Amino acid sequence: MADTEEGLVKGISGTPRSLTEFTQIQKYDEVSKGFFNKYYYWVKNKKIIPQLEWRKTTAYDVSQLITDPAAQGQKFVAMYSNSRFGLYNCQSLVSGPENAINFRYWKIDNKDINAHNQYQIISEGLETSKPNAELERKWYDSLIGVDTNDRPVPDTILSEKQKYGILDRPRQGMFKNRVEALKQTVERANRTLKENLIVDELIIPDPDKYECMEFEGWDRCWLTYFPENVNLSSKSPVIFELHGWSASSFEMRNYTSITSLADEVGAIVIHPEGLAIPNSGAFGENQESWNSGVCCGDAKAQDINDSGFLIKLINNITEEYPEDENRIYFTGRSNGCQMTQRMALEASHFIAAVACTSGYLGFTDDSQYSPIPIMEMHGVLDEIAQYTNSGRLIIFEEDARTIEAIQNGAIENLYDWAAFNNCDGPIVDSNEPNAVYSIQRFTSCENNTEVALFTSHAGGHNLYVNDICDDISYNFVWGCLGNQGTFDTHQIIWDFVSRYSKNESISN
């Protein structure tokens, strides 16, 4: 009855895969009071749409799009849904050893990986579908060979590895020429499709997703890491990790290696992206930053509502993933640590605990604050967020360190938080010295919280294990050398925050 008028009326359609391949099941007939044989065949090209809200296309229609897109009026790119597309007739374009697009370059487990942190699907002939301003500018400059100031693109001072890509470097090109760029784009798109088109009936979150939303007139983006070992039937803790000034979500995730901890403890990790206005840097580069109240970049200069963006992102994550709203934690580095501490003051009703590295509190409005556990981590040799004095000025931001609350460094920051949390006593309750670090704690604080200062005796501005140096790092700003394996920063952070939950350890 397949593909017959009677069959379609009865909901039977499609072409049997084989007339000799079937499943035979005996059914009982209430009328005749006897058993009869019923045969089930595997079919393809079904012309009936299942009664599911999200299904708009039949299997037959999809098969036609895949096998012969041109006959369906599709040109090169066939859109199957609002989130899936296919490419065809591209074999001649993906052969050859050339590598034209150098996607964002980084390392995972000591293996060279090409990755790209900006994706955008553009439909041919659709007026509303156009590249975002940053991508459009990079494409244009790369094809023309110069920027708007007639400076060569890519910049001749860059190494061969750094000349092409979308790293936050001055005047990088995206590709060498259009033909080679097309080859690489098609190749990566096909690989992505091959890896992600087959899904189970159970909707499993994308384990590595970069996405954006519009917030107060800006495109705000974030990177999500969803460990494979997370139990979808239970709620998972969520860690928000904020990058430093002029870094990115990808760079932060890469050099902190927080995903290893996430795999171990089953936590979802969110890496939000600070705002970057194209060509805003001193050398024409983009500089992602957070408006922490005292620092940094475009976010501070334009008084960007980063707190509002992060609070909305928390709400989005709560709705999308099986996360535990009682175990939301924040961490970050440098400007990201400053923003983490601002979030502690402004979003304490969401956040269970925070612990961050190499940054001071630059925001002092505690009108919305209900005490939560706080740990700051500092290196004694930090030349940026100085341990004993925060008076050093960052180049190009002469007012970046003028707020009174942070003038006396890490110790003063510890006491500021002790005051916010209404901790008892003028001195810390405990001091836990170690050969390479010590931890001082106020433990008698409101809401059963604590305030702690982790001090790395020989640490600089980067307290993570991995170095973040590269060929053209501005080391005087970054402080790129890591802790050389003397301690596991994320384990220490996790040991601190994971003891706290909104519904257990904290009295709301």
Description:
This protein is of the alpha/beta class and 508 residues long. It folds into 3 domains: 5-67, no CATH class; 91-191, no CATH class; 207-497, 3-Layer(aba) Sandwich (Rossmann fold). It is built from 12 helices and 18 strands. The strands form 5 sheets. Strands 9-10-12-11-13-14-15-18-17-16 form a 10-stranded mixed sheet, with helices on both faces. Strands 1-4 form a two-stranded antiparallel sheet. Strands 2-3 form a two-stranded antiparallel ribbon. The N and C termini lie far apart (65 Å).
The description of the largest β-sheet is: 10 strands, mixed
- The average pLDDT value, as a whole number, equals 75
Q: Could you state the CATH homologous superfamily of the largest domain? A: Alpha/Beta hydrolase fold, catalytic domain
Determine the number of helices (DSSP H or I, runs of at least 4 residues): 12
